Amino acid sequence: MITRSERLVILTLALVVVLTVLAPLALMVATSLKGDENRILLDIGSLAAFWVNPLEAEWTNYAQVLASQTQPFLRFLFNSVFVVGWIVVVGIFVNSAAAFALSRLRFRGRNLVLAVVVALIIIPMEALAIPLLLMVNRVGWLDTYQAQIVPFIAHPFSIFLFYQFFAKLPKDIDEAAYVEGATPAQVYWKIALPLSGPVIATVAILQSLEYWNAYLWPLMVTRGPEVRPVSLALAQFFGTPPPTWGDLMAFSVMMSLPILVLYLAFQRWFIQSVVASAVK
Amino acid sequence: MASLSIESLRKSYGSVEIIKGVDLTITDGEFVVFVGPSGCGKSTLLRMIAGLEEITSGELKIGGTVVNDLAPKERGIAMVFQSYALYPHKTVYDNMAFGLQIAKVDKAEIDAKVRDAARILKMEHLLDRRPNQLSGGQRQRVAIGRAIVRNPQVFLFDEPLSNLDAALRVTMRAELAKLHRDLGATMIYVTHDQVEAMTLADTIVVFEGGVIRQAGSPLELYHQPRNTFVAGFIGSPKMNLLPVTVVAATADSVTVAAPWMTAHLTVPVEPGRLAPGSAATLGIRPEHMAAGSETGLITGQVTLVERLGHQTIVEVAAGEGAGVTALIDGTRMTAVGSTLPLTFSGDDVHLFDADGVAAVRLKVPEIARARRERPAA
After folding, report:
1. Cβ contact (<8 Å) for A176 and B79?
2. What radius of gyration, in Å, describes the C-alpha atoms of chain A?
């Protein structure tokens, strides 16, 4: 049994965690809505930095960011959505199909492939960047969308997540389908994939987050605003004088919104999947 | 519908042989039940028939065609799994229609077949539900419906009722028997439940260690078990198997004696290899024993009493360590620690030689030879 005082301690700790997580977000949103740069500089250093009076909120920063000719925000946003969209959508099919084969089909070298996939999870992007850059350069993909999409469709951690999920699905279900005349491809498409909702949500969120925030790789393979993602543009925007905090935060808010919406849309499944993998 | 023949069928996983040469013929429309202890290979054999396990050697024919290398869907079989194996994301209707949809059957035909199967199984009102909205019995019905709609040559059931509670099991058992009567289909059914085997089967096949120990009608197995394994496996409570020594043998009887018996017992069997002086095993079913008045063939102390109401199961210590189970009249007054005399007739008992092979009984009830009557097709 939890006593009253224990409950109070737990609640206080939870509140501290929540505030710590929310504080930067509050600062970002509040600052983005303050039109007067001097006011921002004045508020910084006090609690007023985390708050804006709704009646005084201004959208000028947003208007300025959207109107910039040299830094076309909407173009960057489109690039990011386009790149991440392709990676996630194609990735779901490719990674789940790979996981299905690894967990359900019997073939020579299956365990070796699985071991390699798991081992690949721990290799950081930084270690692969240079060889990958040479390859991309060789096929003439510099400054293209495909250079940002194709290398990241196959995602070892997603394969592993799908693998874990499929391994837990009762084998009888596949066998029942095989007896009814289904092929392995039909079992994957009509049975396994439709049952993977929670994993699809998890993979979609994790992969989106990873590539939405990608910085190093896009920096290496892109030059102009035509294909550059919004993450890179933010850094560039920050480096372009004169930087104003209000604009910068408006940029940040608009950059964070899509991923926030995605998370809210999938969070029920995401939590379900994370909890399931934690207790089983 | 189709017959099925199995010749010298074997299955090995590496060096471990699971099925060690099985020969079996199943006639068209027969209800065959595979029974045996865990790990005896009954489920493996069923899965081999289904095409879910490869056949290491031997030949499997369904409807006269060798199907060893055919995929499950080409064998004309349908299987009902112990876990039901329903597709959780599909409605009952779609679960039943799945196989036909894959085979690209015309939509109107699928609809007619699904609704027909639902009518047979009395679940028309469940068609729009998903499996997680159904009870265990309803789920099993859907699994059976899924088999019915495909109109297979052979139905395979892998312990279909073992996940259900006792009451539901009785109901479903009756429904399965009715289904077999109505469809007249060939059915192979794996179970470890004796009652299911006895009540459903035309033929029971008893497995042990990957080989068939005996195949025959339920009452044939009950009255004429060919060996001590089948004798002990069929019947509940289990048959008592007790050591005896042969004292005399004629052409139509064998007389045995044992320290735990108060007198010699003459059993009407063909002596076979049972010569005077040889060791043998006497098999007495608990239900063939009766509590005597003063003297009995066995007299011993009661060590266990289980009252079922109409009958009482008693365990009596007979001689050195040998416990005998008897099923006696439920009104008999008896208690643990009291002395109980038990009697039985030589006509009811079974005699096995030292290798556990039964001597042929000469007095067998007529019913042991009767086959179950089949409904006209």
Report:
1. yes
2. 23
